[in-house]
Design brief:
With 755 residues, the chain is of the alpha/beta class. Helix content is 65%, strand content 7%. Strands 4-3-5-2-6-1-7-8-9 form a 9-stranded mixed β-sheet, with helices on both faces. The two termini are 82 Å apart. Keywords: Coiled coil, TPR repeat.
């Protein structure tokens, strides 16, 4: 019945089954018949008659019929009366009739609102049209086409706030993907960038459970929309809070969000923002990134987690750190690990270069070396008395290694000798032997020494000469940075002294740092009687003790007194045994990732140093500005005081002479009366009198006033000069004081230690 009332076809109820007769005639006959009843009910027929008249455009008659409807159809009749006035273009009257409709029918109320919506559009009354369609949507959103009408209207009017609100509400209500798509289009077109991110939390959270691909797409669109405005960090906090309680399915590839996390991470680190501005976001941010990262991004996400944890320990959950470590440990089984790792490192370096950040030069050299899979990197270390230097010099046939060296040196075979010294900030060529000897004394320096060495060439071996161990902390500071460059480690022990637990403890600690690093031992002998029973028993005891700690370790016995060729042949065979079964490629991926992590740490440290420097400069400049403002105020006060003193004394002189002249000139003029006597020519007396008075005044000015005034003004000039000199002296003292203060502050700032 409601459908009939809406379409004004209720009259079909009365003419059903009657053909070839005009509806108005049938209704007229029914009307007459109903009148014959004792208590006629004519409202139904009148309502139907009104419909027929309306459809035949006889609007006045239709209105007359509907005005006389008094039963339950009266609200519909009022609505129809308003419709008739619309057809007659009497819109103001139609509005009054629509607003007068009172009904409990949700359908009728919706129809009235839609009619008012159409009417207000005709009247070009945008606010009322918006109010009408929003009421209709709120009242009956499932009503046919009502939400689509609202959407089209808002879009046509470019009323994006209401369009977004409609899309958000309908997406939440219906969970229909079409509304989420509409909302995403609004976001991509920039219509939501000014809206607080929390407004969208209630719509994107349900989408996560409905369609994760669409969730990722919408979240990425929102992310991009906030990237360039003041709500950026608020959005990052919002998406972090939303994702942290979710457990994304690993089967789903979150490529868009993973990329967004990576790009944003580098953006946060590029110097545009201060770290303290976003540090509160990072723990949750990195946790979410780890959960969503693709296979390639998981590497850098893990590196970022571990880097941040080293700089800000206790900020990250243990589970996140464990996950990062696990991913890096698995990276050696990643088939394209070396290739992708190098590409990742290059992208980090490219980004750092674009941002003007200094990168650690040592890591660049090391990663280049790690790509050479034809070379086995063997690190050699030991205690100060182990004889490590003698052994390395024997291998190289050069007196290059020293027991007291602090630098780490990579010896590699090459046709021509080239030596580079690399620190975190620079690299340089070394051409002189003395320069080399001085450079190896410097800590945290990495030296690449390429020269013709037949033994290294024949065994495809690169030797890493690490500093001697005095204690574990020293090893950490000097050589630990290069441990991941090694494919294996030789720990040198002097057999002439008893093997101490401290030496083995240091070897065990190295093993703890890199569990997968093979550790073997060199036993150096210097006794002349190498084959003595005592020497052999001591060596055997050492080997047994080593195997108690390192069951798979191999040991090579070396003597400085034995012929080189024989020993090098044996050592060559020893090298082959430790290389057999060792897949270099498996460990190189993890090593590359380690140095990527170290590079990120280095960049982050530099960022912090730069921030610290900038904050010091800001503080310094603010203090200088404060001091200068104070000096400016003092200068202004001095100027005003000097100006008042000088002007006051000058005005006092001038005023005194003005008063004296006023009295004296009057006296001179009065005394000029004696110049007139009985013999004076009355025709010329005024002229003669004027000349004589002027002469008396001029004589008085030149002989009396000007000399005395000159003396007083000279005194005034001297006093003013003294006053200005005093001010100048005070200003000079103030300037000197300010310069000393600034120099002192600059010196203190330069020697202040960051931590």
């Amino acid at each position: 019945m409601e459908k009939q009332l809406i379409s004004k076809s209720y009259y079909h109820t009365f003419i059903e089954g009657i053909n070839n007769v005009e509806p108005i005639k049938i209704l007229g006959e029914l009307y007459k018949q109903e009148q014959q009843n004792e208590m006629p009910e004519l409202s139904y027929i009148r309502f139907a008659q009104g419909e027929v008249y309306f459809l035949n455009q006889d609007f006045e008659t239709a209105i007359f019929k509907w005005e006389n409807v008094s039963n339950e159809l009266k609200p519909w009749a009022q609505k129809n009366i308003a419709d008739a006035h619309v057809e007659m273009n009497l819109l103001a009257i139609a509005e009054d009739y629509y607003n007068a409709v009172e009904t409990d029918s949700e359908v009728l109320e919706t129809e009235v609102l839609l009619q008012l919506f159409s009417l207000y559009i005709q009247l070009d009354d945008h606010p009322k049209a918006v109010d009408a369609i929003k009421q209709a949507v709120e009242l009956n959103p499932d009503y046919s086409d009502v939400t689509d009408m609202a959407r089209v209207f808002f879009e046509d009017q470019q009323d994006w706030d209401n369009a977004v609100e409609l899309a958000v509400n309908e997406a939440k209500r219906t969970e229909s993907l079409s509304w989420f798509v509409t909302l995403e289009e609004y976001v991509e077109d920039g219509h939501t960038a000014h809206i607080h991110p929390s407004y969208f939390s209630e719509v994107i959270l349900p989408l996560y459970h409905i369609d994760q691909n669409r969730f990722e797409s919408l979240a990425t669109a929102l992310w991009n929309s906030y990237q360039q405005n003041d709500l950026y960090f608020t959005w990052l906090e919002e998406i972090n809070n939303l994702l942290v309680v979710q457990e994304p399915e690993r089967s789903n590839t979150w490529s868009k969000l993973s990329n967004q996390f990576r790009v944003t991470y580098f953006e946060l680190m590029n110097g545009k923002y201060l770290i303290h501005e976003f540090s509160y976001l990072i723990p949750t941010y990195l946790t979410n990134w780890m959960k969503l990262a693709t296979a390639s991004d998981a590497i850098i996400a893990s590196s970022a987690v571990l880097s941040w944890n080293e700089i800000y320990p206790a900020n990250l959950e243990a589970s996140t750190i464990n996950m990062a470590e696990g991913l890096l440990n698995q990276s050696d089984r990643y088939q394209e690990g070396i290739k992708d790792g190098v590409e990742l490192y290059e992208s980090v370096m490219k980004w750092a270069d674009a941002e003007g950040l200094i990168v650690d030069k040592r890591n660049q050299w090391i990663i280049s070396e790690l790509q050479d899979l034809h070379q086995y990197h063997l690190m050699i270390t030991g205690t100060e008395t182990s004889g490590k230097g003698v052994f390395i010099n024997t291998v190289l046939e050069e007196e290059l290694s020293e027991e007291a060296a602090n630098a780490t040196v990579l010896y590699k075979d090459a046709d021509n000798a080239k030596i580079h010294a690399i620190t975190d900030e620079e690299e340089r060529m070394i051409a002189e032997h003395n320069d080399f000897k001085e450079t190896i004394k410097k800590e945290q320096t990495f030296i690449s020494c390429r020269m013709p060495v037949s033994f290294l060439n024949e065994n495809k071996l690169s030797l890493i000469d690490a500093p001697d161990l005095t204690n574990q902390d020293k090893f950490r500071s000097k050589a630990n940075h290069y441990l991941n460059l090694a494919d294996g480690l030789l720990f040198v022990i002097n057999t002439d002294s008893n093997l101490t637990s401290n030496e083995l403890d240091q070897a065990v600690k190295i093993k703890d740092q890199i569990p997968d690093l093979p550790i073997h031992f060199i036993l150096c002998k210097s006794e002349s009687n190498l084959d003595s029973q005592v020497a052999m028993e001591r060596t055997e005891a050492m080997i047994n003790r080593i195997h108690a700690y390192f069951p798979n370790a191999k040991a090579f016995t070396f003597s400085a007194n034995e012929g080189r060729k024989n020993q090098m042949d044996q050592f060559s065979a020893f090298i082959q045994t430790i290389k057999n079964g060792h897949n270099i490629e498996e460990g190189r991926t993890a090593s590359i990732l380690y140095y990527i992590k170290k590079s990120i740490e280095f960049l982050l440290d530099r960022r912090e140093e730069e921030e610290y420097s900038l904050m010091n400069k800001v503080e310094w400049n603010e203090e200088v500005v404060t001091k200068l403002k104070g000096a400016q105020h003092q200068l202004h006060d001095i100027e005003e005081n000097s100006d008042q003193v000088i002007n006051k004394s000058y005005n006092k002189i001038i005023e005194k002479w003005r008063q004296d002249l006023t009295m004296k000139l009057q006296e001179l003029i009065r005394n000029s009366a004696e110049l007139v006597d009985e013999d004076s020519d009355l025709g010329k007396v005024h002229m003669e009198l004027n000349d004589k008075i002027n002469k008396r005044i001029n004589d008085y000015m030149e002989e009396t006033v000007l000399p005395d005034l000159h003396v007083e003004l000279q005194d005034w000039i001297e006093q003013s000069d003294s006053e200005l000199n005093d001010s100048q002296t005070y200003l000079r003292e103030m300037s000197d004081s300010l310069i000393i203060y600034m120099m002192k502050k600059r010196y203190l700032s330069s020697v202040t230690v960051k931590y």
